[in-house]
């Protein structure tokens, strides 16, 4: 992978809440996010010198993570506590679409994508560790992440892929033939074919990423898939992943009790539908830490974070 270019910050915008884990931009450039206290917020004017405006759209009653805007003024929400939700953005009504799979409660839903046929695909990061013990799953390397599909009118998801290493962000290819799934614990992107002779099969899409991929975002269908890197690769962790399961379990119990502070090295990638990296931006010694999401708003990149109490506005790269 080529040497990264500098990720240039322009401003930091406090939003009065912690943990805007995913950020998505609507057609008007406004940014939606979910925060730690369960609220869904809409941020307007992030790139204006006059200052940003924060509007509360809904409250999920749980912990919203990945978001997906729908065409009918609604929002899909992966809630780590309540499952897959649909939020009406006109009145804030919250409806549970699915909260279990095969009799098992849906916990740690991570990211969702709406397909043209009306079905919804979404990820579950871990079946062993809840959100507040996310680091335990990355250390234990459980491979209990899943890719699920909810058919139109159904409340029972089907399992498309199992055994994923902390399944996270999700994006659809421009032609709708495949999904790209971020496997945070494996530092890779995986392709799952929806149509064609390989339908139902998966394969590596981009491997050996320079960091741990988190949320994915795609604006226009002909635009790239943006990949947030929540942290750089950690060589001791890569080594631990080759240890025996009992060793990893012991290390995970220690990790969830140890104080955590994210590194100051942050980064984002943009990839095309062939798996080629078209942009790689990074910054060392950043004051804004743990970038878990990225989206474009106008001529700026907006960064979200599970850790911070606001979002960062950065210079977007020049299109290639």
Automatic annotation (TrEMBL):
<keyword id="KW-0597">Phosphoprotein</keyword>
<dbReference type="InterPro" id="IPR011042">
    <property type="entry name" value="6-blade_b-propeller_TolB-like"/>
</dbReference>
<dbReference type="GO" id="GO:0016787">
    <property type="term" value="F:hydrolase activity"/>
</dbReference>
<keyword id="KW-0325">Glycoprotein</keyword>
<dbReference type="InterPro" id="IPR018119">
    <property type="entry name" value="Strictosidine_synth_cons-reg"/>
</dbReference>
<feature type="domain" description="Strictosidine synthase conserved region">
    <location>
        <begin position="117"/>
        <end position="196"/>
    </location>
</feature>
<dbReference type="Pfam" id="PF03088">
    <property type="entry name" value="Str_synth"/>
</dbReference>
<dbReference type="Pfam" id="PF20067">
    <property type="entry name" value="SSL_N"/>
</dbReference>
<protein>
    <submittedName>
        <fullName>Strictosidine synthase</fullName>
    </submittedName>
</protein>
<comment type="similarity">
    <text>Belongs to the strictosidine synthase family.</text>
</comment>
């Amino acid at each position: 992978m080529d040497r990264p270019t500098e990720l240039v910050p322009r401003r930091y915008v406090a939003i009065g809440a912690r943990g805007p884990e995913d950020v998505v931009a609507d057609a008007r450039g406004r940014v939606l996010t979910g925060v730690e206290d369960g609220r869904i917020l809409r941020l307007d004017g992030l790139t204006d010198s006059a200052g940003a405006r924060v509007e509360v759209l809904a409250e999920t009653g749980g912990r919203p993570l990945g978001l997906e805007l729908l065409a009918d003024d609604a929002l899909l929400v992966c809630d780590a506590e309540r499952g897959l939700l649909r939020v009406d953005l006109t009145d804030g009504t919250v409806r549970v679409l699915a909260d279990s799979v095969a009799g098992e409660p849906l916990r740690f839903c991570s990211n969702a994508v709406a397909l043209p046929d009306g079905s919804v695909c979404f990820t579950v990061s871990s079946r062993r560790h809840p959100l507040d013990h996310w680091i335990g799953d990355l250390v234990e390397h459980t491979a209990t992440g899943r890719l699920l599909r909810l058919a139109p009118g159904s409340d029972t998801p089907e399992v498309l892929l199992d055994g994923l290493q902390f399944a996270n962000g999700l994006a659809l290819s421009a032609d709708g033939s495949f999904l790209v799934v971020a496997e945070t614990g494996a530092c890779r992107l995986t392709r799952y074919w929806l149509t064609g002779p390989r339908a139902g099969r998966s394969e590596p899409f981009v491997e050996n990423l320079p960091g741990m991929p988190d949320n994915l975002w795609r604006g226009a269908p002909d635009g790239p898939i943006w990949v947030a890197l929540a942290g750089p690769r950690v060589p001791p962790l890569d080594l631990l992943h080759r240890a025996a399961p009992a060793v990893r379990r012991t290390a995970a119990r220690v990790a969830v009790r140890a104080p955590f502070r994210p590194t100051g090295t942050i980064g984002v990638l943009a990839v095309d539908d062939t798996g080629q990296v078209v942009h790689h931006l990074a910054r060392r010694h950043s004051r804004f830490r743990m970038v878990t999401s990225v989206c474009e708003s106008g001529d700026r990149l907006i960064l979200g974070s599970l850790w911070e109490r606001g979002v960062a506005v950065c210079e977007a790269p020049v299109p290639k």
